[in-house]
Write a structure and sequence with these properties.
5-stranded mixed β-sheet, about 550 residues, about 30% strand
């Protein structure tokens, strides 16, 4: 049995194992003085890899012997165990193979890793890492490049000479320079020097140009240039080529209407040119004065004329409250009561009722002054019977889709397929579109990308999950422990036909819309889980408003 002395003893602490008591002197444990040592073992059981030994009396000694390649030594109270494997006959390394040969270590051979041309090696200090690096070198180091025989000049490129790459001048952006069809790349100083070009045309100078003798008139005339001699020659036109000239007419006296001329175009000169058209004779001015005088008299007379003085109005017997009505027989206006030619008073008006019929009506008898009311027939028994409602039916349901709404088109109500009652039961902060990838994951596109993503919501709000895109994968919301939430005040589900369930009955659905009213006190990690497929699970992280 091993002795289990305390780990951090103080001086004079005691430890008892069996019938022996030990005392700690501040450095080592000693058998307590006065104990009968004659029958005490100085060491208990010692376990080795292949056996054990237990002291049977006080004279037993524990010997620590070295094994293969292990030596032991005791100096004072110190036992030292050393490895003696170094210097043995075993090879330190075996065969090393290279591109051009191999060797096998014999004895304590040393493997040297040395760099060659442009290769260096380095042992990182205080580590077991050997780094082999490629040193910086010029392009001439490449076996198929020669920049030594002919040193490169500014603007040159490497060109293949049939054997290797060597410096040369670039003719074009492509490097060929023999069949270029544009001047791209010909913008170096070499090509901008005209003297470096071959097959150049002869350049004419100003002294090469001359004007030859005039040719005989012909047609419309022309100027010709001889590109070879640099001579210009002029051929004048013939009268027939020019055509007959006609005199320009610029007489606006009959075309211009003075009233149509803009003010900005009226100048002193233009007024002078049209004085004749604007002159007024004295007799015309006199006649205009008499016209004005006559108009004043007529206007004065009009103020004094009454309605009865009009030739087509007869006010005979007019009474209070009467109006003028056109008498088509005598072609004039005569007084009559406001109700019409019959002279019906308010006391003559009455209301009678007919039996219900059709859409109903209100009819007025202009002779008797009676209103007759016909109420409409019995109302429609179904909404589709209304004249302004048109519903497409499949079986007993509108388009076989429960929960549909009606949408006004401007003339009638029709089925509206864009929204059903389950999607508008309660306003939500966000509606997640739930989809799936096989039986492995949910997705929430377009709000989130990827599979089983972590989604984030706010406490104190309502969120919803549209489940139609993940049918066959019952969806449940769980607390941090993985327990499905069944609180009816938080969780409720609405089917497309408007049927509503709450609590546990709302969980595990794969169609319709699941609503979650998140309490304001919630925060941290919650979960969504497919109750049929364990791999379809993800995190819902709730951020609490009061802690933002």
């Amino acid at each position: 049995m091993a002795l289990n002395f305390p780990d951090a003893p103080n001086a004079d602490d005691t430890y008892t194992e069996g019938s022996v008591t030990w005392v700690y002197d501040g450095t080592v444990w000693n058998i307590q003085a006065g104990a009968a040592s004659s029958d005490q073992n100085l060491f208990a059981t010692v376990n080795a890899d292949t056996g054990t030994v237990t002291a049977s009396n006080t004279t037993d000694a524990l010997t620590v012997a070295g094994g293969t390649n292990v030596t032991t030594a005791i100096v004072g109270k110190t036992l030292t165990i050393n490895s003696s494997a170094v210097g043995g006959s075993s090879d330190v390394i075996k065969t090393v193979t290279t591109d051009d040969g191999s060797f096998t270590a014999s004895g304590e051979a040393t493997l040297q890793i040395l760099g060659r041309t442009n290769i260096s090696t380095e042992l990182t200090t205080n580590t077991n890492e050997l780094h082999i690096d490629l040193d910086a070198h010029s392009i001439d180091f490449l076996s198929d490049v020669d920049t030594t025989t002919s040193a490169p000049a500014v603007g040159q490129v490497l060109k293949w000479d049939g054997t290797q790459w060597a410096p040369g001048f670039d003719s074009t952006t492509g490097g060929g320079g023999t069949d270029a069809d544009t001047f791209d790349g010909f913008d170096s100083t070499y090509f901008l020097n005209y003297n470096n070009l071959t097959n150049t045309p002869t350049v004419a100078t100003l002294s090469d140009f001359s004007v030859g003798n005039e040719r005989t008139a012909d047609g419309n005339g022309a100027i010709e240039y001889d590109n070879t001699t640099g001579v210009f020659r002029y051929t004048p036109p013939t009268p027939g080529g020019i055509g007959a000239l006609s005199a320009e007419v610029n007489d606006l006296s009959a075309a211009v209407v003075w009233d149509d001329v803009p003010d900005a175009n009226i100048t002193q000169s233009s007024v002078t040119q049209h004085q004749a058209a604007l002159s007024v004779t004295e007799s015309q001015i006199t006649d205009l004065g008499s016209y004005i005088t006559d108009y004043t008299v007529v206007a004065s007379d009009l103020n004094a004329i009454s309605v009865g003085a009009l030739s087509d109005v007869d006010l005979t017997g007019v009474g209070n409250g009467e109006v003028l009505a056109w008498n088509n027989t005598n072609s004039r206006f005569e007084p009559t009561s406001p109700a019409g030619s019959g002279g019906i008073a308010l006391t003559d008006l009455s209301v009678t009722a007919n039996a219900a019929s059709g859409t109903g009506a209100l009819v007025y008898d202009n002779t008797t002054g009676a209103f007759t009311y016909t109420p409409p027939a019995a109302g429609a028994t179904e909404i589709n019977d209304l004249s302004d409602v048109t519903i497409a039916w499949v079986g007993n349901l509108p388009l076989d889709n429960k929960g549909q709404l009606l949408s006004w088109t401007g003339s009638t109500f029709i089925n509206y397929t864009g929204t059903t009652i389950d999607k508008i039961t309660e306003n939500t902060l966000v509606e997640f579109q739930v989809g799936n990838v096989g039986t492995q994951s949910y997705n929430f596109f377009p709000h989130y990308s990827g599979q089983n993503p972590t989604i984030y919501v706010m406490s104190g709000t309502t969120v919803s999950f549209k489940l139609d895109g993940a049918q066959g994968h019952p969806f449940a919301i769980q607390d941090p422990t993985g327990t499905t939430i069944t609180d009816a005040t938080q969780i409720f589900h609405v089917q497309t036909n408007g049927n509503k369930t709450t609590g546990s009955l709302a969980q595990g659905r794969s169609e319709g819309v699941l609503y979650w009213r998140i309490p304001e006190t919630y925060s941290g990690g919650y979960r969504y889980q497919c109750t049929a497929h364990p791999a379809m699970v993800g995190s819902i992280q709730i951020k609490r408003f009061s802690q933002i």
